[in-house]
Write a structure and sequence with these properties.
The chain has about 250 residues and is of the alpha/beta class. The protein has helices spanning about 20-40, 45-55, 75-85, 95-105, 145-155, 175-195, 200-210, 215-225; strands spanning about 65-70, 85-90, 115-120, 130-135, 155-170, 230-235, 240-245. The protein has a seven-stranded mixed β-sheet, sandwiched between helices.
Length: about 250
């Protein structure tokens, strides 16, 4: 498996735990404040990004969906409402995030459609060709091995199925690029520290986004993992991109 620079970026640099173990621990620690910080730090724009990503699946009419790195289940819940599949599985490493997610699913009265499962994205506990669609929202940069995780998602996709990924990217417009760097380097980790008492988690957010392969580089990786018709769609002046890849019939 290929290794990429961001694979070596971990939440706790002095830890002997694997990246996956560190990521699970980090999200367990911030689970209670995660939703508030997520929407606050993005000024609520993240909701629009998720809607745009799910719109890429409308024509597919997926009946069985998998949301990898589901966190507290925002995409799984939105997918159940907007796309009306028969079932959605939300998978995540963090028991803390899943606990919050299960409460949200129950409150939304979607427990009959959405199942929240603890598991590793690089060793998905599902048979080949199981899902019509796989989604990941700001989670692939947390994979211990990016290529392995992408290949696992490809494996569980049905032929003709589609994978849709949202991930941070770096703006290209010079003025906005400077503001973005200030926000990610200074504002995000310090607000994260004040609210969640966890500076490392939000410093990791910046570092992992900074080193993540983006745009054409990431679509090339998707293609090398077997996906076809790959493309990316920048969002909000390039703060993030929606990536799409398909599994051939």
């Amino acid at each position: 498996m290929a290794k990429f620079a961001h694979d070596n970026i971990t939440p706790y640099q002095d830890s002997n735990l694997t990246k996956s173990q560190q990521v699970a621990s980090m999200f367990d620690n911030i689970a209670a404040k995660y939703d508030f910080l997520n929407h606050f730090l993005s000024i609520g724009i993240d909701v629009t990004w998720r809607k745009h990503a799910l719109n890429e699946l409308k024509s597919l009419h997926p009946q069985k969906m998998l949301d990898v790195a589901t966190g507290t289940g925002d995409v799984a819940i939105m997918a159940a409402r907007r796309l009306q599949p028969k079932s959605v599985v939300g998978l995540d490493l963090s028991a803390g995030m899943l606990a919050v997610g299960k409460e949200k699913v129950a409150k939304a009265k979607l427990s009959n459609i959405i199942e929240m499962v603890q598991g590793n994205s690089e060793e998905l506990p599902f048979e080949d060709n199981t899902f019509d669609a796989v989604t990941v929202s700001f989670g692939v940069r947390n994979f211990q091995n990016l290529e392995k995780g992408l290949k696992e998602m490809y494996r569980v996709l049905k032929p003709g199925g589609k994978c849709v990924i949202i991930e941070f990217s770096r703006p290209k417009q010079s003025l906005f690029k400077g503001l973005y760097k200030l926000y990610m380097n200074v504002v995000t980790p310090n607000i994260g520290k004040m609210v969640s008492k966890n500076y490392e988690a939000y410093e990791y957010l910046n570092e992992s986004a900074k080193h993540f392969p983006e745009r054409e580089d990431f679509t090339h990786i998707l293609s090398s993992c077997g996906y076809s018709n790959t493309k990316f769609v920048p969002q909000t002046m390039g703060i993030c991109c929606i990536y799409i890849g398909e599994k051939k019939q």
